[in-house]
Design goal:
single chain, disordered C terminus, alpha/beta, 384 residues, Rossmann fold
Length: 384
């Protein structure tokens, strides 16, 4: 079987890392995988190329680029695929016509939060969502949201993201470097693009409240990621004299290696699908604190495998600071949360399970051809 994955780019981000894992694992299971990037290959794409995996880019321009519709069509026709897997809505919009004209069955995975207006949802339902054999969400509430928006239930299913939990396999490549001595430091860390929705500014405010009551040299906050909000975050750090306590490390490849040094992992995002960073932190045996949004509550049992926060704004900062202080003072609670969190990942959110479910989905879609199946489950569970 030959599968084409279509995504905007293969930069270092959550959905892109899911695609990277799928391609590697499925190739090992005898399924040939290519990757098509609408815009550019990105760092992960270049990494896959070095492993002799096939990846190509359509070099999409800013805005709507009509030329890539036909560029994509001819590349797919020439190569020949048994199935096309679109990752998010943009690639589906550019590629659904090719799938239809060439009679190639397709699936689409919605990796992020679905915050569409009613008019846009109706447009997607009426046109684009008609073509994939299955629409996959990465968290159950995402599937339920689409059903409420009018997407037929028999088109939908949930496949949770999964992460590798083999420590030797995941900690590869990049050397771990911190701009401070990690010895005897209490390190709070987070991973995510520096965008407003990731809510790093409120995390900084919470850390300031938390650190004000500690010895000056005890705690550190580490933020891994890059993005448009860097300047605002740097300004807050300087204005509040936190430059010796808070560090923006930029993008890093070896996330599990950095997680090893964290005492607590925090996910302050106000919107999520199912965060790969959160799954990796829990799989690394770290106590986690996250906002109760998206799929976080489907991974974390509050007070058992992590802590969920439901407040926003200034109340969020104060509550987060209180939780950080509690976990700082109670190592037994940190260990309790960390142990249960890792067990949750091992049992329900490991990469092997995710890959097996996608493999079964591919086989069922190819077996039934490019027609829409009457079977709402395609012969397997709709969720974990």
């Amino acid at each position: 079987m030959r599968v084409l994955h279509v995504i905007d780019s293969m930069e270092l981000a959550g959905a892109e890392r899911v695609v990277e894992s799928l391609v590697r694992w499925l190739n090992q299971r005898g399924i040939e995988n290519d990757v098509c990037c609408l815009s550019h290959k990105g760092e992960l794409g270049e990494r896959l190329e070095k492993e002799n995996l096939r990846i190509f880019s359509l070099e999409k321009k800013e805005g709507v680029d009509w030329k890539i519709f036909w560029n994509f069509f001819w590349k797919v026709k020439k190569r020949g695929y048994d199935l096309i897997h679109f990752h998010n809505i943009g690639p589906l919009i550019y590629g659904f016509l090719t799938s239809y004209l060439l009679h190639i069955p397709a699936v689409v995975t919605i990796h992020g939060r679905i915050g569409w207006k009613k008019g846009r949802t109706r447009l997607l339902n009426r046109y684009y969502f008609r073509f994939p054999k299955k629409i996959v969400t990465v968290w159950k509430q995402g599937e339920e949201m689409l059903i409420r928006s009018g997407v037929p239930a028999n088109k939908l299913m949930t496949i949770y993201n999964g992460v590798e939990i083999n420590e030797e396999e995941t900690k590869r490549g990049e050397e771990i470097k911190f701009p401070f001595d990690t010895n005897k430091k209490f390190i709070i860390g987070t991973v995510g693009n520096l965008t407003a929705v990731k809510n790093h500014l409120e995390l900084l405010k919470a850390f300031k409240i938390f650190s004000d009551g500690l010895d000056v040299d005890e705690a550190r906050l580490v933020i891994i990621g890059e993005g448009r909000e860097r300047e605002n975050l740097e300004k807050f750090i300087l204005d509040n004299h936190l430059e010796k306590l808070v560090f923006l490390l930029g993008r890093k490849r070896n996330i599990p290696g950095y997680l090893d040094y964290f005492d607590i992992f925090v996910l302050p995002s106000t919107s999520e699908g199912l965060s790969i960073a959160l799954l990796e932190a829990m799989g690394s045996g770290k106590a986690v604190v996250a906002m109760n949004v998206g799929g976080n509550s489907e991974v974390i049992q509050n007070g058992h495998s992590g802590i969920l926060i439901s407040t926003e704004g200034s109340r969020f900062s104060k509550q987060m600071a209180e939780i950080l202080r509690e976990l700082h003072d109670d190592s037994q609670k940190r260990d309790f949360l960390a142990k249960n969190g890792r067990q949750k990942i091992e049992s329900s959110f490991n990469c092997a399970l995710t890959v097996a479910r996608y493999e079964q989905l591919y086989k069922d879609c190819v077996k039934s051809g490019d027609r829409v199946s009457e079977d709402p489950t395609l012969g397997y569970e709709k969720s974990v």
